[in-house]
Amino acid sequence: MSQLQYDELGYKKKGRKRNPRPLLITILCSLLFAYGLWEIVYSFTGNIVLKGGVDTLYPAINALMMVFAFVGLSGVWSMEKWGPVSFVIVITLKLLVDAMFSHFSWWYALGYIPAVLFLLALPKMKKTE
Q: For a FRET experiment, which of 20, 98, 115, 117 has its CA 20 to 30 Å from that of 80?
């Protein structure tokens, strides 16, 4: 096992350069972040209530799920192992919340496609210490 090295301020030195982020992950994270912002704005416009007649609590919960998705995407962006796992959990929870408020759409299940791609890149990601 390797020894941890510290600099003059007591911080851990980086042992090796981490793997660069693949271009596909960069593009997917950027697109999903833009979609998440659009989803938050769209859930508060009132169009969502006209379509499905959902409860007034749904837009707030939907926005909260998008914030949790942003947390998962930030983990994927920084190439941390917890990122893809948390993203899959958030996608699953979003589908369950949408089903509870009878706003379920199979289009949201397409979120599993980037999630699978993120999980395939899991061996290249670093473990959080």
A: 98
C-alpha to C-alpha distances, 124 to 25, 40, 78, 128, nearest whole angstrom: 12, 31, 11, 13
This prediction's pTM? 0.78
Contacts of 47 (CB under 8 A, 6+ apart): none
CA-nearest of 5, 15, 18, 16 to 125 is 18
Cα 63 to the center of its chain, rounded Å:
13
Please give the angle made by the CA atoms of 127, 113 and 21, to the nearest 5 degrees.
40
DSSP state of 49: H
Q: Report pLDDT digits (tens) over 17-45.
A: 566 789 999 999 999 999 999 988 887 77
DSSP assigned state of 12: B
